Model the fold of this input.
Amino acid sequence: MHQLEQRLKELGYDLPPEPKVPPGVKIPFEWVRIHGSRAFIAGHGALSADGIPLGPFGSVPSQVPVEQAQESARLATVSMLSSLKREVGNLENVAAWLMLGAFVNADPGYPMTTLVANAASDLLLNLYGEEVGAHARVAPGVTAVPFNLPVVIWAEVELTV
Done:
């Protein structure tokens, strides 16, 4: 097992299988698209050990408390890492995290979406350190995300050559 995967295990996380979507839902895109030395990672939500969307479901903070939304953001980041590993073979092949985005399923007017996204940023910084893990970020509140998840995470990374 590679060092970053071992660190994830120590933190209590396992890489889930490829996302499974409900019957009738079409996914006409790639979970990870590599172009040159960049990997563009599509929006991911929290997944169960079976690869299906994992609750809690609903908007933050009225239906999903901030602490639960933060855990969902961490699990979404783990799902994203799993897709990245499937595409590039090893999570150590990341030279730099460039951009991280978090779409937070937020109540209208909820201004603290950054609290939810911080959980994803903190996990990446914990795993990769400042030099590789530092990234730019955006974390808007939106009125809906796929499957009514509390947060969806996406990213862009630079790969080692």
Summary: Helices lie at 3-10, 66-88, 113-133. Residues 55 and 149 are 7 Å apart (CA to CA).
